[in-house]
Structure formats: C-alpha cells, structure tokens
Write a structure and sequence with these properties.
CATH topology: Spore Coat Polysaccharide Biosynthesis Protein SpsA, Chain A
Structural class: alpha/beta
Helix content: 25-40%
Number of helices: 14
Bound molecules: 2-acetamido-2-deoxy-beta-D-glucopyranose
Strand order of the largest sheet: 2-1-3-6
Amino acid sequence: MTSPATTYASPFVLSVLLLVSIPVIFLLAPRLLPPKTLPAIPDADESEDLALFRRAILSSSSSATPTPSSAASYFFRRRPAPKVAFLFLTHSDLVFSPLWEKFFRGHHHLFNLYVHADPYSVLELPPTPSFRGRFVPAKATQRASPTLISAARRLLATALLDDPSNQFFALLSQSCIPLHPFPTLYNALLSDNAGPHGHHRSFIEIMDNAYMIHDRYYARGDDVMLPEVPYDQFRFGSQFFVLTRKHAIMVVRDMKLWRKFKLPCLIKRRDSCYPEEHYFPTLLDMQDPEGCTGYTLTRVNWTDQVEGHPHTYRPGEVSASLIKELRKSNGTYSYMFARKFAPECLEPLMEIADSVILHNVTEGVYIGCDVMNKHRVVHRALEGLNYVRNNISPPLFGYS
Ligand SMILES: *[C@@H]1O[C@H](CO)[C@@H](O)[C@H](O)[C@H]1NC(C)=O
Ligand SMILES: *[C@@H]1O[C@H](CO)[C@@H](O)[C@H](O)[C@H]1NC(C)=O
Ligand SMILES: *[C@@H]1O[C@H](CO)[C@@H](O)[C@H](O)[C@H]1NC(C)=O
C-alpha cells in the first residue's frame, strides 16, 4: 500500500525533475551525441609546431642572406655541397634500413637523415648506424587525419633548422625502397634546372582532374575550404615528394591554407579523407607551379588497391626485372624510389641490392639532360667530398 502523501507528491517531483533536466540536456548534448567530425589536432601540438616552424623560418632567412660585413667572406668561402635530407615518416620498424645503409654508404657528406616515428608505435629493431640519433620529437599520426601533414611539416622544419646545406627534402616511409644508387638520385636532383631562372625544381605530383577529387574537396564539410581554397585550385598528388629548400620553407611558412586543411573530416565522409594528398600539391601549385615538375620520383602500383592502400609487393614478386620495370617513368627522370614493399621483402631485396638496385647504370636515367648540366653536377659532387659534416644541434632531436 502506498501512502496518500507519496501518490500526491510523485507528479510534482516528476515535473520538477523534467524542468531541471532541460538545461542539463542542452549542456550535455554535445558530449552525449556522437561527434560529427573525426578528432581534431590538439591545440598543444599545434602551438609547439608553430614555435618550431617560426625558428625554422627565422634561421632560414638569416642563413640565406649574408650580412654586408660577412659578404666578402661569403663569396670567398667554399660553399658546402648541397645535401639531400631524407625524411622518414613511420609508425613501425624501419625494416629496410640494411638496404638503405648500403644506399647511403660512402655518401654521408651529401645527405642527412631524419625519422618521425609515431610515439605510440612499438619499434623493436634497434636503429642501424645511419638512423641512430636521428629521431625527431614526434607526435601521434593517424590515417584520415591532417596529423600526417603535421608530421611531414615537422620533419621539413627540423631539417631546415638542422643544416643550411639541406637543399632537397625527400619524404619516404618504412615501406619505401631505393631503385637506383645514391649518386644517380643526387645527380638527377641537381641536374634538373628547368625551374624559373634556371633553378632546381621540386619533384611533386600535381593533378587537377583526379578520381574522387570532388568528394575529397568536400570531406571537411560544404564550402568550409572557401575562400582560401577554391574548388578549381584544389589539387591531388602522392604525399611522397622531393622538395627544394625554397619550397620546404614555403610549406613551413604557410598558415593560410593550413587553417583549412587542418580541419578534421566529417565522419560520414571519412572514406574521402586524405588531406596529405592534397595540401602539398595545392599549396605549391598556387604559389610556384613553374618550380614543380608535376610528377613524383616514387613509384607506386595502384592496380589492385584495397581501401586506399596500393599493391603491396610480396617476397615472391621481388626480382631484377621488377626493379627495372619500377624504374620506368613517363617523366624526365626515372623513378628513384618505390613503395610499398612488405617487411618480408628485405631478404630478396638484399640479394639483388649490389647487382641490380645499387648497380651503377647510367643508361635510361637521364631522359632529357644536357652536357653542361652533367659537368656542373660532377663538379659540385666533387666539392662535396671535401665538405666537413656539421654537428647536429642537440635540442632538435629526442632520444635515439
Ligand atoms: C602491379 O600490381 C599487379 C597486381 O595487382 C601486378 O599484376 C602487376 O605486375 C604490378 N605491376 C608492376 C609494374 O609491378
Ligand atoms: C606512361 O603513360 C602511359 C600512357 O599514358 C601509361 O599507360 C603508362 O602506365 C605510364 N607509365 C608509367 C610508368 O607511369
Ligand atoms: C658510374 O659509372 C660511371 C661510368 O662508368 C663512372 O664515371 C662513375 O664514377 C660511376 N659512379 C659510381 C658512383 O660508381
């Protein structure tokens, strides 16, 4: 039996509860409802990056222009040979480092190496000598997120700051392999001077009529890209590029396009979310189209793609003829790198490293290169032999 008091009070208590709950629902709704977008980049990561980028821009502008007092010594001083900065973006072990060690051997005065390893990934293999101590302070990276752009910009900024001789910046991943010996790559980068005023160009793929580009443009929402990124200026291309120093600075300096590309994608459009394949080609095509080749030096096979992943080569596919096939390009230069190779490919790749991959072939590399260029390249490469490697400034790097 219920007492008369309880039966009388219940409707009253209920309506009070109902009234109180309305503002509570409004307050909590955004937390209770599922979010509409994928996670955004944490503000703390953004501000740390900004500080790093500012330092990189500042140091690059001071090293580029000699002050009047040092102008004389600037011209008489032997200019160090240009170097290639290899930027490895990874979330697993660098299993192909024994192959890269062979590629790098004897050329340490002409390159620097930087690794951005996702701090949440478990790396079990100890770094091989060239990779030791080259890990830059890294932050979490995910697919379908602008964190991959941030990681690439972090690598570019660190390499800009670390050594003013870094003139080319090659982005690679743990599943990339070289297709030619180091001197072939080096000479190709330095002999290309078809940019404005005879300058070197960046090797970056830039396409405007790609498959699914409409969905990719609207992945962050309707018209959110405007006014900075009009639809007809939105570009597509592989994230694996080789940028010149000028373009690396351009990328690190950019705030305008980044404001839009850093926006997280809508969850319902996550299948169209590949911001890293759009940010770099869009930015460089807007700011210096003549300074870019429009194609990449990294070969990839999209014939049997699965959920945005290209064909992954298995050990049974590795052969001399595969390497020769992968080098073939429609661009001015042969392909220099290829992806993606399964980790188990290390052994068969090492077996053909000396006889095929790193074998000194001169034919078929230069498709349109004149004699003057070759002379200049050889001269600069020889200069490089006398170059004493800079020490690395400790604050730039983290552990191992
Ligand atoms: C690309 O991958 C397909 C398998 O999807 C394979 O049949 C083909 O030989 C590959 N092409 C090259 C150049 O490796
Ligand atoms: C070169 O271009 C032809 C014709 O457009 C195309 O069929 C072929 O796949 C291209 N080869 C490479 C290696 O990109
Ligand atoms: C490659 O071969 C050419 C011609 O034989 C030679 O001049 C050059 O020094 C060689 N390069 C390397 C890195 O061995």
